């Protein structure tokens, strides 16, 4: 995982602990999916739990309860954010907010080189992008129906939906011209 991606995951985790107070990591993962934060950041279960451990080692999170389970590899551990964690959150938030957004897309790079790609591979990739974008648009529309979103969260989700619909239209147009 790249340094910038780690900082984004840590920022998200710390922000969730600020908003939720004491919580189990599993609860926060559910919240990420429920609020569709994964539309803005790619986060795996492994990277999430890894960063929980890193933040605990750094002193940004403190364990409040530890309950072993029958499975020796699984425990229920709840955490809270510490003062050090709040300071790190402020630092990471300021840094992320000042970063410019850059369009970096593996599929766009592939399309730049599409003249050297087999037509069936191009057709298959376009169909996959259309299907993925249709699913993401449906997911974002569903997310916008959640009632406890802040106005800014609604704006961000609406903006993301608008971008995804635009990309969907574009991929559908490419699909038609490449048939």
Descriptive notes:
With 179 residues, this protein is mainly α. The protein folds into 2 domains: 3-98, Orthogonal Bundle (Arc Repressor Mutant, subunit A); 106-177. It contains 7 helices and 2 strands. It has a two-stranded antiparallel sheet. A hairpin with a 6-residue loop joins strand 1 and strand 2 (75-81). Helix 1 (3-20) packs across helix 4 (83-98). The protein is elongated and about 60 Å long. The mean pLDDT is 86. InterPro entries: WH-like_DNA-bd_sf, WH_DNA-bd_sf. Keywords: Coiled coil. Residues 123-150 form a coiled coil.
Helical fraction: 55-70%
Strand order of the largest sheet: 1-2
- Please state the overall shape, judged from the principal axes of the Cα atoms: elongated
How would you characterize the largest beta sheet? 2 strands, antiparallel
**First-residue to last-residue Cα separation:** 37 Å
Classified by CATH, the class of the largest domain is: Mainly Alpha
Q: Spell out the CATH superfamily of the largest domain.
A: Winged helix-like DNA-binding domain superfamily/Winged helix DNA-binding domain
Helix count equals 7
The CATH architecture of the largest domain can be given as Orthogonal Bundle
Class from secondary-structure proportions: mainly alpha
What CATH calls the topology of the largest domain is: Arc Repressor Mutant, subunit A
CA radius of gyration is 20 Å
User: What are the segments in which pLDDT stays under 50 over at least 5 consecutive residues?
Assistant: none
Mean pLDDT: 86
Q: How many structural domains? A: 2
* DSSP, total strands: 2
Strand content: 5-15%
In sequence order, what are the helices and strands, one letter per element?
Answer: HHHEEHHHH
